[in-house]
From TrEMBL:
It comes from Botrimarina mediterranea. InterPro entries: Gfo/Idh/MocA-like_OxRdtase_N, Gfo/Idh/MocA_oxidrdct_glycsds, Gfo/Idh/MocA_OxRdtase_bact_C, NAD(P)-bd_dom_sf, TAT_signal, TAT_signal_bac_arc. Its EC number is 1.1.99.28. Residues 209-297, 397-474 form the Gfo/Idh/MocA-like oxidoreductase bacterial type C-terminal domain. Keywords: Oxidoreductase. This is Glucose--fructose oxidoreductase. Residues 44-169 form the Gfo/Idh/MocA-like oxidoreductase N-terminal domain. The gene is gfo_2.
Length: 478
């Protein structure tokens, strides 16, 4: 369904221009240093105002004004506007009132908006991102960017045809601890990497959820969008204006991650972070990674599956536990496991090399190879390799240095037109491993995938799970 022109008159255009001028006129001190000129402050809009919005609006409003918010739930929008105002007020600045929409296409048709921040459920990311690029917007999308492998192919095609800058919210790439771990692996400081283990935690299960009406003010049809039609279900009545992970299990809002119809469970939740760093460190970010085989040695699903599809539509259905082995052609192995008794470390990533091992997560970076960095630091080139060939000094100038905010990197790239550190191409390749792992778990058997063709090896049944047709009325733009 292609967006329809919504700024039909000169009056509409002048109204939008006036709104843009209002947000651009906020005192320069409200924005981060280095972004004081009005033409350096991109005007952003937020599409999706759920569980990630609170952090994103706080980060993005450091670098420029926000003009509009969009959500299919009016209660979510009410809460989002309050958060928007609180960010400005926390900096001692009078807050403009953002325009609010249920239909994201109204944002894409506004000439005053430079970039969109997509924080919808996973199954909406690609459709909105493609249409935003076609509308001339730059795009920051929450991870995982795609619901399936086929969507990643569509996304890369659309980005290649556009002049847009696009980044993915895999913010661990902008963390110095994870950068150092990846550089240690790439430089073989502890010898060749033989195995990497990603501990992700398991996912929840639920009792049967009764069919019920969606919350008042929520457009359930638009929430589902490209996903297959399903009745709304909830363990109990949802409170208005919140819907965080602490609220009752349901289809929709914070718990969408635990339904294969909308997401991929822990494999595309934490896996989109940890598997990303593991493969970044291994240098396996394109088709040259070669074929890989995934063996689901242990899979715990809360419902039964037939031909890769859950047979019970009333319960959360993504894997609650797993022990997966990924073997690459070069002999390197990647294990992806929940936090079971098999692990002797926290949620995070363990690199096992010929001469030792080291561990990284959001709280620590440890191991003998890490301790040895004090006497023999990594060379600048080790980090330059991560930054697509930039030297350490160049990386710092382009916002890719230690501790630099992930959003700042995107904003820098909007100005420079360079590729962000969390680029779409490598994210697609890394996330494909997670998508393929989910297919192996859904089928309950070993599979082999060829990144060159982006197909399984002699496995038509598995190939059938690589993509899906969007629901009528929510087709993807081409």
């Amino acid at each position: 369904m292609s967006p329809k022109p919504l700024l039909a008159s000169r009056r509409d255009f002048l109204k939008v221009s006036a709104a843009s001028a209002a947000v651009a006129s906020v005192a320069p001190g409200a924005w981060a240093s280095g972004y004081r000129s009005a033409n350096e402050r991109p005007v952003c809009a937020f599409i999706g105002t759920g569980i990630r919005y609170g952090q994103l609006v706080h980060d993005f409003l450091k670098f420029g004004p926000g003009a509009a918010l969009c959500d299919v739930d009016s209660a979510q929008l009410d809460a989002a506007v309050r958060q928007f105002h609180s960010v400005y007020e926390g900096r001692g600045v009078a807050a403009p009132t953002p325009d609010r929409y249920e239909d994201y296409r109204r944002i894409l048709d506004r000439p005053d908006i430079d970039a969109v921040v997509i924080a919808t459920p996973d199954h909406w990311h690609v459709k909105i991102a493609i249409e935003a690029l076609q509308a001339g917007k730059d795009v920051y999308s929450e991870k995982p960017l795609t619901h399936n492998v086929g969507e990643g192919q569509l996304m890369l095609d659309a980005l290649g045809r556009s002049k847009g800058v696009m980044a993915v919210g895999t913010q661990q790439r902008s963390n110095y601890q994870f950068q150092t771990a990846a550089a240690l692996a790439r430089t073989e400081r502890a010898g060749k990497v033989q195995r990497v283990t990603c501990g992700l935690q398991g996912a929840p299960s639920s009792d049967s959820l009764p069919k019920c009406a969606p919350p008042s003010g929520m457009n359930w049809n638009r929430w589902l969008g490209p996903a297959p039609w399903a009745d709304f279900r909830s363990a109990s009545e949802l409170p208005q204006g919140g819907y965080g992970s602490e609220f009752p299990y349901s289809r929709g809002h914070a718990h969408f991650r635990w339904w294969y119809e909308y997401a991929g469970g822990k494999l595309t939740d934490w896996g989109a972070h940890h598997v990303d760093i593991a493969l970044w460190g291994l240098g396996k970010s394109d088709a040259s990674m070669g074929r890989f085989t995934i063996d689901p040695k242990r899979v715990d699903h809360p419902v039964e599956f037939k031909d890769g599809y859950p047979v019970d539509e009333t319960r959360l259905n993504t894997a609650t536990g797993f022990d997966l082995n990924v073997k690459f052609e070069d002999g390197v192995e990647l294990d992806i496991v929940d936090r079971s008794e098999r692990l002797d470390f926290d949620n995070g990533i363990m690199f096992e090399c010929e001469k030792g091992r080291f561990f990284v997560n959001r709280g620590k970076l440890k191991g003998k190879p890490v301790e040895e960095l004090e006497g023999e630091p990594l060379p600048d080139s080790a980090f330059g390799d991560l930054y697509n060939g930039l030297t350490r000094e160049q990386a710092e100038k382009n916002g890719l240095a230690d501790g630099v905010n992930h959003v700042r990197n995107f904003i820098d790239c909007v100005k420079s037109r360079q590729t962000p550190i969390s680029d779409v191409a490598s994210h697609h390749r890394h996330l494909t491993v997670c998508h393929v792992a989910n297919i192996a778990m859904r089928l309950g058997r070993k599979v082999t995938f060829d990144p060159a063709s982006e197909r399984f090896v002699n496995d038509e049944q598995a190939d059938g799970l690589l993509s899906r047709e969007p629901r009528k009325g929510f087709e993807f733009a081409t």
